[in-house]
Amino acid sequence: MKLKKFLIFTFIVINFIGINQSYSIEADVFVQSTVNRASEALNNEYSKEEKIEKLKQIASETVDINGIGYYTLGAYRKSISKNEINQYEILFEQYFLKSFSSRLAEYSNPEIEVVSKKKLNKNYTMVSSVLVGTEQRPEVKIDWRIYTKNPEKPLIRDLIIEGLSLARTQKEEFSSIIQSNDGDINALFSTLKEFIK
Amino acid sequence: MKKIIITSLISLMLVVNVSADTDGENNLSKKNSREVKDCFESVNRATFKFNQVLDGVIFEPVAKAYRVLPSPVRAGTGNALDNLSALVTIPNNILQGEFKKAGVNTGRFIVNTTVGIIGIFDVAEKIGFPEYEKEDYGQTLGVMGVGPGCYVVLPVLGPSTIRDTAGSFANIIGGDAWYNVTVANNTQHFSDFDYYASRASSGIDFRAKNIDSFENLEKNSMDFYASVRSLYLQDRQQKIANSNAIIQTQDDSDWEEIETQ
Lengths: 197, 261
What we know:
Chain A is α+β, with helices and mostly antiparallel strands. Chain A has eight helices and five strands. Chain B has twelve helices and two strands, in the order H-H-H-H-H-H-E-E-H-H-H-H-H-H. Chain B has a two-stranded antiparallel sheet. The interface between A and B is large, with 47 and 35 residues.
């Protein structure tokens, strides 16, 4: 009887530890596994539509789309209403997934090698990688800004290609659209809707 | 006379530039590239459109045809053009106080021009002297603390800033040895055509290497002009900082404010 109680107790303790044990994922391992998933999705066996769907799925699991959306909105995120923020979040997600997947779908079997990582602070780690060169294009350096606040679920926040930040480029593009329309955020919404169509 | 006019023009541009960027901050600080003012935006946008038309009619088709050439031919052409650009990089290495780089680049130029047959083969890299980043007079002015001034789009040549445009004038007042032996002075060996052909070829080579990226960017941009402006200014900022460390040219403060977890 004592043995039975002991076994049950041990079983409960093991399960309790197992359930509560957290597994942090290293940023470089996360990037390499994301890249491997994307490479598989870009396999030439799939049609372009299938590639796009797979890439959208990967992006929604590995990219901090809301975070990028807020960053991209810049100072405007502090001055617009809650309703406008909600509307923006919905539009930005659709815009991002379409833009991201169609940009990548053009590539076939890209070979990306993770080279190193540098922890900036507890929230961010930069992972450096290279897109291996082919006959058609030279080697390209790609750095990944990984949001690591929750180490169990790292997320991509920016890609920096040869020193050029995609998030920053997008932020300046959005800002230009708003400024060209006398600071009217609705102009950005209309442009986003037009793009999503 | 020609030199006096050009020198006066450069001085004027730099004076205007100082007025346009009087906050006293060095542009190497982590400033947002968008802070470079687009003072002539409507003219710039018109020039940008003109350049796009020109690109569609001339540069893109030529670049596509160039891409059909066998890979070793393109690699050789790219190497020879890179080798010529060392003639601008070396004086700028010296002006920036990078004497070791100037020495290595000079050695590379001599080896590649001779053993590498006018630079077609990058022999220097094979013997352990890889190429350093290219430098120009605009970058040197940036390193010296001259602000970028307003953003401008030049016909045919594309994006620039007042500082970079002023810097490029230095090439034609003696700062580019290749220009000096082809256009500025009548030598028996080279003609003006050699200089302009090499400049045009550099443009085509660059366009051919980036043809997919440009197409992709144009297709996925909602404001292509603004995207190109942002990329150009980020690129210049990074080149002037002479740093591969991304974090040195990125402003992190905005990222730090965003909490989603």
